[in-house]
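Budget justification aside, the reviewers requested a transparent look at the raw inputs and outputs of the sequence design task funded under Objective 1. We therefore reproduce one unedited record. The lines immediately below are the structure tokens for a 366-residue chain.
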């Protein structure tokens, strides 16, 4: 089952990355990543579809949003992210540390993360919110005229495209006319394999989407030694994952590119973040003069895997709008497989998802 699989994958990842001291938010971020994956994977519209997202991008953006939330609104955001046992200072300082650790670029690997605040001309956020967003989340602020939606959409999409190296170019389609601010988060990852696959060994193979469906895909091939886990039955004990190291095996890895677009409003409310999307929302730490609520939380992620390596991008938009009083609440990978991109220096889950059909370039819209 999904619950059983996720439980044991969490255990494996914790074992792999239990090394030196890291920000206090990281274990909670891993829990949130798997909780969100379970929600998304059981959504009716996700059945049989590819799933791909950046849990870290989502956690970063919602944690930055929490800077401006108070009361029950703040508590629900922290509870949804799994931060109930942490103080705001611990969370903010954890992300400050994390941003410093993530920002590195080398010839074989490039990893960039950052945040931004697209503020409506004439709207003045609380100074402390702006300073904390910049200090802890590297949130650069720029003004946008939301009274001209087409121009605003173009400016925001241009910003996201620049930060994601043109992998995400038209994330924002429309804007609520009452929008006064957008919180943006982005993560860009590009990693080259130390030992690339031989292009000449890439051939067509069958990929079994399910018992009744198979598709033809390009598969990369290599004979090498790998660490891998497999599931087995030991006497009467429950199923466990066993680590087998340094076996020479034939590796057939699917060559693919997928893009996923997720609207997170409903999912976050199901996970407990209800008040932020309602008339009861308290974002007085963000604006003292205006009553605000969330109208959209949009996430897009792109993953490309080929013989040379992996490239992945993610962006998240949190749209805040003015609240009107009358508004109501609102190994041979030839079968589906999970995919993770992990940062070894921070033990962060940068990206995760499930590839059900590698020939379907567009993941399920949830």
């Amino acid at each position: 089952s999904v619950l059983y699989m996720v439980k044991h994958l969490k255990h494996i990842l914790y074992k792999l990355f239990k090394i030196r001291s890291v920000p206090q938010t990281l274990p909670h971020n891993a829990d949130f990543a798997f909780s969100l994956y379970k929600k998304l994977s059981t959504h009716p519209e996700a059945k049989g579809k590819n799933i791909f997202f950046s849990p870290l991008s989502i956690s970063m953006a919602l944690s930055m949003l929490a800077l401006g939330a108070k009361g029950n609104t703040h508590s629900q955001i922290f509870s949804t992210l799994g931060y109930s046992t942490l103080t705001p200072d611990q969370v903010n300082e954890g992300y400050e540390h994390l941003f410093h650790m993530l920002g590195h670029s080398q010839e074989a690997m490039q990893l960039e993360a950052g945040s931004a605040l697209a503020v409506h001309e004439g709207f003045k956020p609380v100074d402390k919110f702006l300073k904390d967003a910049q200090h802890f989340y590297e949130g650069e602020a720029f003004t946008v005229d939301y009274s001209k939606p087409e121009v605003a959409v173009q400016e925001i999409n241009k910003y996201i495209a620049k930060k994601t190296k043109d992998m995400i170019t038209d994330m924002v389609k429309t804007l609520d006319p009452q929008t006064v601010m957008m919180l943006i988060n982005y993560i860009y990852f590009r990693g080259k394999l130390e030992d690339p696959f031989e292009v000449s060994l890439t051939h067509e193979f069958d990929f079994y989407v399910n018992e009744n469906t198979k598709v033809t895909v390009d598969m990369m091939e290599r004979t090498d030694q790998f660490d891998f886990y497999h599931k087995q039955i030991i006497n009467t004990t429950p199923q466990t994952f066993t680590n087998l190291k340094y076996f020479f095996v034939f590796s057939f890895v699917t060559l693919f590119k997928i893009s996923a677009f997720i609207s997170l409003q409903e999912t976050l409310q199901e996970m407990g973040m209800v008040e932020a999307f309602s008339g009861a929302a308290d974002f007085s730490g963000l604006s003292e003069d205006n009553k605000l609520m969330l109208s959209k939380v949009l996430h897009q992620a792109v993953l490309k895997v080929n013989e040379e390596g992996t490239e992945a991008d993610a962006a998240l938009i949190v749209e805040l709008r003015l609240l009107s009083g009358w508004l109501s609440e609102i190994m041979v990978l030839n079968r589906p497989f999970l995919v993770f991109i992990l940062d070894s220096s921070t033990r962060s889950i940068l990206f995760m998802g499930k590839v059900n059909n590698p020939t379907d370039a567009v993941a399920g819209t949830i």
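Residues 39 and 267 are 7 Å apart (CA to CA). Residues 1-7, 14-21, 232-251, 325-330 have pLDDT under 50 and may be disordered. Computational costs for records of this kind are itemized in the attached budget.
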